[in-house]
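Weekly structure sync, notes
Attendees: PL (lead), two postdocs, one rotation student
Agenda item 3: pending single-chain targets
PL asked that the sequence for the first pending target be pasted directly into the notes so everyone works from the same version. It is reproduced below exactly as submitted, 238 residues in total.
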Amino acid sequence: MTATAETASYPRAELLVEPDWLVAHLDDPDVRVVDCDPAETSMLRPHIPGAALLGVHPYLKNESGVLPAEQIEAIMRGLGVSNDTRVVLYDSMGSIMAARVWWVLWYYGHTDAVILNGGWPAWQAAGYPGSRERVSPPPGDFTARANQERIAACDVMLPQLARGELLPLDVRDDLEWSGAKPAPNAQNQREGRMPGAIHIEWKEFVDWEHATRFKPAAWIQQRLEGAGVERGKRVVPY
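Predicted structure, written out during the meeting:
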């Protein structure tokens, strides 16, 4: 995939696509566009023409973490995703939902998944049309193969934390970080944060005044380095 001028400055530019790229590839048979907003949002607004609605909560998780392989396979196959499908993910919430679905696909071995930079707001800002037509793609044959190195289990993290080998990056809001938000609640079962964690709320990386696109790569790098996130150290966001 060739990066556009707007995404080329990112170190992993191939993980993002722009609306101009997507509108030119909507009819590609190997491209599947997935609207990752929760159903209560995606059902009430138009979507990108040809996009399949995820239909389940985009966190794709259960009590123990990510949904098991057989459930992910069923969901993705129902969306028309096969092992060789390029999956373009978007939402209307600053890409937090699309990024979660991207991570689940990455964890289960599907590396040809990208995020639409800015999602639905960027698509609208570019002047491209929306559709309310429901899409029923032909079933795919996606096979989920978990890569345990792409998830940080607590029993693995604790010794590495003690040795200073990894850095927890807490991307929750200020109240969650400080422990001021009462627990238990829908998001947290305990108050506070991991020992040694650095805090940058995820919303800081989104340019909310520029159609919810990601902020420039240079700004992101400066923000991370200024907070103490060292390049080359293993970073575990949560």
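Discussion points:
- The domain at 152-237 is CATH 3.40.250.10 (Oxidized Rhodanese; domain 1).
- The chain has a mean pLDDT of 91.
Action: rotation student to compare against the earlier draft before next sync.
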